[in-house]
Amino acid sequence: MSAHGPVTVRPITGAEHLAYARTRPAVSFLQLPSWAGVKADWRHQSLGWFEDGELVGAGLVLLRQVPRLPRFLAYLPEGPDLPWERITDLGHWLDPLVTHLRRRGAFAVKMGPAVPVRRWEPATLKAAVADPQVTRLREVPADWTGPTGAHLTAELQRLGWRRQADTGAGFGDVQPRYVFQLALAGRSLEQVFAGFNQLWRRNVRKAQKADVEVSRGGYDDLPAFHEVYVETARRDGFTPRGLVYFQRMWHAMAAEDPDRLTLFLARHEGRLLAATTLVTVGDHAWYSYGASTTEGRDVRPSNAVQWAMIEHAHAAGCAVYDLRGISDTLDQNDPLFGLIGFKLGTGGYAQEYVGEWDLTLRPLLARAVRAYLSRR
Predict the structure, then answer these.
(1) Assign residue 361 a region: left if phi > 0, alpha if psi is -120 to 50, beta otherwise?
(2) What 3-state DSSP class applies to 373?
(3) Whether the domain at 7-112+356-373 and the domain at 116-144+164-353 fall into the same CATH topology
(4) Distance between CA atoms of 212 and 15, rounded to whole angstroms?
(5) Scanning 20, 112, 140, 333, which has its CA 20 to 30 A from the CA of 27?
(6) How are beta strands 271-281 and 261-268 bridged, if at all?
(7) Residue 348: CB partners within 8 Å, gap ≥ 6?
(8) Where are the chain's structural domains?
C-alpha cells in the first residue's frame, strides 16, 4: 500500500491536466490535452490521480469505440504520468483506473508508461555494431539498468497485464519501445558537436559551406512540408498522413503553447530539400516528423536541419533531444539498421522503455484491439 492515503482516480479538466503537467520536468507530448485535439478520431478524457486530496498524477486516455456498441478500447500513449519511483504496490494505483474505465465501457486498456529500463552508451553501441556476432540490441549488456523500470515490469506482470510481443525488430506495438536520445544537459553546443562522429561533423560543415539555409516555418508552410513528406513516404514505402492531420496538430499544439511545435525547413538555392517538426515539453524535445527529397542529398540538408533542431533545443534549455524510435537490430545488412545507423552519428545513447501493456476487461471484444489500433 501507499505510505500516503488512498488513491482515487476521477476526470479532470484539460486546464487542470495542463497545469499539473507544467509542474513536471517533462511529460510526453502524447500525454498532454493537446494530443486529444490531434487524434480527432478518438474520444478522450483527462484523468487525475488524487492522494489525500492532492493531484499527484495525470493521464490522457484515448477511447476508440466499437462500431454500434457502447464499448471502447482505452489507450494511454506513453502514460500515465505517475510518481513511479515511489510506487511499491502498483495495484493501489492502477485498480482505480481500471475500475473507472470499466464503468466507462472499456473492453481493454492499453498503456505504455515512459519509464526507462535500460540504456546503452555510445561506446557500447559502436562496439556492438562492429561485432558481427551481435545482431540485436537486447543481446548487449546495458550500461545502465533502472530499478524503477524493472519493478514496474514485474508489477505489471503480477497484476495480469501483458506486454505486446514485438515484431522481431524491437518495435513493440504502437509507440516505440526503443528510442535514441542525445543528452544536452550540462554540455555546451561545442561539446555536443564534438560528440558527433566524423561523418556527422563533416556533413554538417558541408551543408554550411554549400549555404544550406535552415529556417523556422509557420502554419502556411505546412503544405510545402507535406509535399516533401509525401515524396519521402513514396520513396521509403510507408503510408503518409494527410495534410489535415498536420494542420490539426499545429492548431492543437499552438493553442496549448506557442512554442510546443516548431517546423524547420532546409533550403538550398531556393529549393526545399528537407523539413522536420520538433515538439518541446518542459526540458525534453522530440524530433517527431522528418521529410527529405531525393534531389539535393549531396549538400546534406538532413544533417543541417537536425543540427538546427539540436541548437534550438539547447537554447530552450532542454536536457534531452529525442530522436524517437529505433529498431533493435544491429545487423548492418538489415534494412532497418538505418534507423539507428543515422542517429548513432550524433553520439547519443539508446534507451529501452517498459513498453506497452494490455489488460483485457472483456475477452470477447479483446481481439478487436489490433484492428482498432490499425485505424489510429
Answers:
(1) alpha
(2) helix
(3) yes
(4) 41
(5) 140
(6) antiparallel
(7) 122, 180, 181, 182, 183, 321, 323
(8) 7-112+356-373, 116-144+164-353
Residue type, 227: E
Q: Check: CB of residue 80 under 8 Å from CB of residue 318.
A: no
Can you list the alpha helix ranges (DSSP code H) found in the chain?
A: 14-21, 33-38, 91-104, 122-130, 147-158, 189-194, 198-209, 222-236, 243-256, 301-315, 337-344, 363-366, 369-373
Residue 179 β-bridge partners: 325, 351
Determine contact, residues 39/74, Cβ cutoff 8 Å.
no
Q: Which residue, chain included where needed, has cell 533531444?
A: 321
What region, left, alpha or beta, does residue 90 occupy, with left being phi > 0 and alpha being psi -120 to 50 degrees? alpha
Superfamily of domain 116-144+164-353: Gcn5-related N-acetyltransferase (GNAT) (3.40.630.30)
**CA nearest neighbour of 275 among 288, 264, 286:** 264
Question: pTM higher than 0.85, yes or no?
Answer: yes
Give pLDDT tens digits for 111-152.
999 999 999 999 999 999 999 999 999 999 999 999 999 999
- Reading the block at residue 92, the C-alpha cell is 493501489
**Strand order across the 106-111 sheet:** 7-11, 43-51, 54-65, 72-76, 106-111, 357-360, 162-163
How do residues 71-125 score in pLDDT, each as one tens digit? 899 999 999 999 999 999 999 999 999 999 999 999 999 999 999 999 999 999 9
* Distance from C-alpha of 276 to C-alpha of 312, rounded to nearest angstrom: 13
Which residues fall within 8 angstroms of residue 6, CB to CB, at 6 or more apart? 51
- Encode pLDDT of 249-306 as tens digits: 999 999 999 999 999 999 999 999 999 999 999 999 999 999 999 999 999 999 999 9
Cell of 173: 506495438
Q: From CA 320, how far away is CA 161, in angstroms rounded?
A: 30
DSSP code, position 116: E
Cβ pair 107, 366 in contact under 8 A: yes
Residue 324, C-alpha cell as written in the block: 524517437
Taking the CA atoms of the chain, what radius of gyration do you get in angstroms?
Answer: 21
Q: What is the CATH number of domain 7-112+356-373?
A: 3.40.630.30
* Residue bearing cell 534494412: 335
Whether residue 6 has a cis bond before it, omega within 30° of 0: no
